[in-house]
Amino acid sequence: MPAMSAPATAATAALPEPAAATAAEPAAGTIRLGYHGSPEVAHRVTALAGLPEATVTLHPYDITDPFRGLREGDLDLIIVKFSLREPDLAVSRVLTHDARAVVVGARHPLAARTSVSVEELADHDAFHRPGDLPAYVWDEVVPPRTPAGRPIRRRHRVTDIPRMMALVAEGAAVHLSLISLADVAPPTVRIVPVHDLPPAPVALAWHRATGLPPHAARYVTAAEQAASR
């Protein structure tokens, strides 16, 4: 569902399985990294950082309140996509990108396509922003209008990926999203690339006042340096 440099090459990272977002005090040197949707981009960023000595635990965060884990001290870092303009959050340089795609039901007329235009999506119902996700971020995820000025019908309200996928599978809506969702999509939906929207920039964010423990700061620096090569 969610929102800068040239794409980095994807790599495979050996990370632990995602842990519960309510994890207690971390072990010394552990980086608590929040993500939403597929963990694939988090794996990619960790591979980019190239710090095998750092222990990274993945924690899925709630898209209806995406920054709560940072603000309450439960997470050190989160993966963010698109622009972020929260005064209390600091953001890294762009580390990689996530291509745009649309989630459609397996029997939807667009399901067999190799790619679609965002202009075509104005013919179908889409989704409102979930919960407290900033409106300016959602306007990048699901813009109110296409580049040609056609309104996108943001009609459905949804709070999590399983419910969104269920509505899409039923044919009630399509969801303009990101190609990484293919990793978590059920067989009842298809992920179709959108060829005329730019990919989403991917970065790391942390709570500005809290700052980062030294090992997490090294992780960010290493990822930024690798992305700039």
From TrEMBL:
<feature type="domain" description="LysR substrate-binding">
    <location>
        <begin position="26"/>
        <end position="225"/>
    </location>
</feature>
<dbReference type="GO" id="GO:0032993">
    <property type="term" value="C:protein-DNA complex"/>
</dbReference>
<dbReference type="GO" id="GO:0003700">
    <property type="term" value="F:DNA-binding transcription factor activity"/>
</dbReference>
<protein>
    <recommendedName>
        <fullName>LysR substrate-binding domain-containing protein</fullName>
    </recommendedName>
</protein>
<keyword id="KW-0238">DNA-binding</keyword>
<keyword id="KW-0805">Transcription regulation</keyword>
<dbReference type="InterPro" id="IPR005119">
    <property type="entry name" value="LysR_subst-bd"/>
</dbReference>
<dbReference type="GO" id="GO:0003677">
    <property type="term" value="F:DNA binding"/>
</dbReference>
<dbReference type="Pfam" id="PF03466">
    <property type="entry name" value="LysR_substrate"/>
</dbReference>
<comment type="similarity">
    <text>Belongs to the LysR transcriptional regulatory family.</text>
</comment>
<keyword id="KW-0804">Transcription</keyword>
